[in-house]
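The freezer alarm interrupted the setup, so I double-checked each line after restarting. Inputs confirmed:
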Amino acid sequence: MTRWTTGTAVTTEPESRDASSDSHGFSRRRLIASAAAAGGTGVVGAVAGFGVGRSGADGRAEAAPSRDLSGANGPVTEPFYAPHQSGVETPPQAHAHFLALTLKPGINAAEVVRWLRLLTADAAALTQGSGPLADSEPELAHDPARLTITFGFGRGLVKLAGAKAVPIWLGPLEKFPIDDLDPDRCTGDLLLQICGDDPLTLAHARRMLWKDSRTFAEVAWQRDGFRRSYGSKAEGKTQRNLFGQLDGTANPGSGSEDFARIIWGQGTGREDAVYSARGEPPDDLGAHLPEWMRGGTTLVLRDIAMNLDTWDKADRPAREFATGRTLDQGAPLSGTDEFDTPDFTAVDKRGLTKISAASHVARARDGLGPETQIHRRTFNYETGAGEGAGLLFASFQADIDRQFLPIQRRLAEVDLLNEWTTPIGSTVWAIPPGITEGEYIGQSLFEG
Amino acid sequence: MRKNTTLMVTMSVAFMIGLSACNQSQASEPEDTSSSQVSVDSLSLDNAWVKAADDGMTAVFGELKNNSDKDINLVAAKYDDADQVQLHETLEDNSGGMSMQEKKGGFTIPAGKSLSLKPGGDHIMVMGLAKPVKPGEEISLELVTADQQSFPVTAIAKDYSGAQENYAPGEADDEGDGADHKDMDHKGMDHGDMDDDEMDHGDSGDH
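Predicted 3D structure, all chains:
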């Protein structure tokens, strides 16, 4: 176990346990692929326990570059029936559609349950590579390519199950001085986060979900995002945003004890737990969640516009100074490797700290303990040449008050990156737990 | 809330057969000693769905499965909230289009085989709806065989724009859902005369 101790030798230690050997011997993707081939969809959910090598081996073969001509990724599935919904701990796919829906006036709880049953059945089929009932183009469902469909509930939907079911935090965040929010991007009663490695499969999934939604709801807003394509980078490599920065270095690894505590809000009880250099997070972060959310988590979804034109005016040293990290390796300016723990006390020849106290990395973590961590599952967007560009910042954490807000408040106060970024959309969602076959997503809310 | 209303959509075939068994008490079928799974209905409608409709007509689709070792002749279907239910087939007509008509003698499902009911093909036609069939709703029907056995089945209602032959012109006018109105108004369908087995399939251009 590593512990967070400022300015000591631990600064050279990797932030996560993921360099451990199991990321070499076990490929999670391979596990899922073989489980899918065996038809054991229910089994896979229980296997979410293998650490994906965030800082692990590159995995690239020494051989000359070659293309996968076999279509290997098409049939790969992520579990649908599992203790937690997929699409949170799932290693991020290449593409995402975020579709927020608003209930039509007068829709009641019984109707919402009918709707959720339809969407659950659709998602269960689509994510496993089958066309759902009444699918006019079932062939478009046959290559799931790690399709996941994650449901998020907004206040308006939860309220239909009774005012007592609504958590206090489920509503707009407090106002931040950096925000320039478009009210039309801050609404919605149901969020469908549709992720996958194949954009055609995604389009079809969204179409099916929409056809089964249009009786009950209207589109509140929607946004498409992307990361590196499947196959471009080894699994677990940190993605880059449109500023060219590595984005998500500090994330807890899938399957880790950190992830269980920080996102699902409950420890796994395992004996061999290994924590990041931030230290051991508390295991009660989910204690405040209502009973119907046990096994679920919270999502703060921020639509952050990035001004590429003014970013162009900043030269490399200025960019790195603002971030506190190098652009090429993503290493903190106090170190040499992406996963070096930032040393906020390290000084250069002039006696100045190598990492500016106003830099993004310093503001986001200096002095904050292991409790104050999130899992950012981000997707880039750019709507066209010279048009809007930004980041869909999906932040998962068990407790918004204890984890997300302390970071956000500090960044809103001072963060050199704010010069180029503007939050234009902001929504908060309850992510209900996963289900077993025969149940529907949200059953614990409406029938709990 | 009934807990098993979506079971039909999400369930594996094996599980669905088990579910049908729960309804066995309503069927008059004697125990089939030739089968090891004595509680399985000899006829089931798997992955059943019905096109949602506010009024007028609709149709039921799915996989009619003969789980027995004898051919089954389905001759009728019953739905309480409609004037009439017919078993329909869709055939090429003389003009090169498709038209649907009542299937004389009903559907025969060979022993151990399935018959697929789907838009543009065989289907169970429901006419004169007494109340809307809403998306996500589960409706109950009875399938009746030539030897007068009755099998209860359920179908989930789906918002579906195809299977246009199930709507008569003019009826779409009162619908809340706007998407297809113009389309449907222009279709040359003549469903008004229910005594006529032959019905024009208006959107033959789609085939």
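Quick read of the result. The domain at 82-446 of chain A is CATH 3.30.70.3420 (Alpha-Beta Plaits).
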